[in-house]
From TrEMBL:
One of its GO terms (molecular function) is 5-amino-6-(5-phosphoribosylamino)uracil reductase activity. Residues 2-175 form the Bacterial bifunctional deaminase-reductase C-terminal domain. Transmembrane segments: none annotated. It comes from the Bacteria. This is Dihydrofolate reductase family protein. It comes from Cohnella lubricantis. One of its GO terms (biological process) is riboflavin biosynthetic process.
Length: 195
């Protein structure tokens, strides 16, 4: 069974986006650059077993402008060469691109959770989600995320979306690992308590 791991940056009070009234994909307004750099090394480790990235539409739009231009970086190489699946809900995007690399495939329709369940049962390496809080909430509600790796930065903000907004029911987790990062950030890894 393929595993799905979320890797996401968060404020101490659980905000994972920028200001929704501006550019909510721009969480760099509160990020800790030292934590970003060190956290990226842990993201790179996920690609030892993962070969696919799941992206929500907004995160795809943001990352597809940035990552294909990254050269000479181990993480950039892994991200650019990985298979990409973009959840586009009921309205497919006409022409998805990822620079000169393999174009992402789309998951569309009203049965996204079922499609992802089938992907988990299929062939291939593990899957990684980074960013994509709307997709994360949907998959969290469907209990499809196996592991949550959250880089927490030592800042609280008063705007932005929280990771677990709009949960349909309580979710219990247990702490698998915690790694202190530079400048008071930390990487916390959680799995479902029943796992």
């Amino acid at each position: 069974m393929r595993k799905i791991t979320l890797f996401i940056h968060s404020t101490l009070n659980g905000v994972v986006t920028g200001d929704p009234s501006e550019d909510k994909t721009n969480w760099s307004v509160w990020r800790n650059s030292a934590g970003i750099e060190e956290g990226s090394q842990y993201l790179l480790q996920l690609f030892e077993t993962a070969d696919t990235i799941l992206l929500g539409r907004g995160t795809y739009e943001d990352l597809s402008r940035k990552w294909p231009n990254t050269r000479g970086s181990s993480l950039g190489d892994k991200i650019n060469k990985a298979h990409k699946l973009v959840v586009t809900s009921a309205s497919p995007h006409e022409d998805l691109k990822w620079g000169e690399f393999e174009a992402p495939k789309q998951l569309t329709g009203n049965n996204i959770e079922e499609q992802i369940k089938d992907l988990k049962k299929g062939d291939g390496g593990d899957m990684v989600i980074f960013g994509s809080p709307t997709l994360v909430r949907s998959l969290a509600n469907a209990n499809l995320i196996d592991e949550y790796q959250i880089v927490m930065h030592p800042v609280a903000v008063n705007v932005g979306e929280h990771l677990f907004d709009n949960l349909e029911e309580r979710k219990d987790f247990h702490l698998v690992d915690v790694k202190p990062l530079k400048v008071s950030s930390l990487l916390a890894t959680y799995r479902h308590a029943e796992a």
